Amino acid sequence: MSKVTVHRNGIIETEIEFVNTDATLLGSLQKNAVDMLYHCKEGFCGACRCKLKSGSISYINEPLAFVRKGEILTCCSIPNEDIEIEIL
User: Fold this and answer.
1) DSSP E strand stretches across 1-88
2) Cα–Cα distance between 23 and 57 in angstroms, integer?
3) What is the pLDDT of residues 68-77, one digit of tens each?
4) All domains of the chain, ordered by start, with CATH?
């Protein structure tokens, strides 16, 4: 189980627990009522892009959308440890 700290506009919005039964980081965020953009849920569109402030993630499927250094796609990633993300 990993702790996910969610920032929005530079302020901590919430902290949630990512459990192994959650398929993706996006799924866990949705389950915990974190409002964020998404579309394809497959790593194609990049709508769910977030900034990874600390920690590390693994991709279930390598994203096809362009991802800048320091950013992640929540729809196809899982945390490896406690992480902090900034909703863009």
Assistant:
1) 2-8, 11-18, 49-54, 57-59, 71-73, 77-79, 83-87
2) 13
3) 999 999 999 9
4) 2-87 (3.10.20.30)
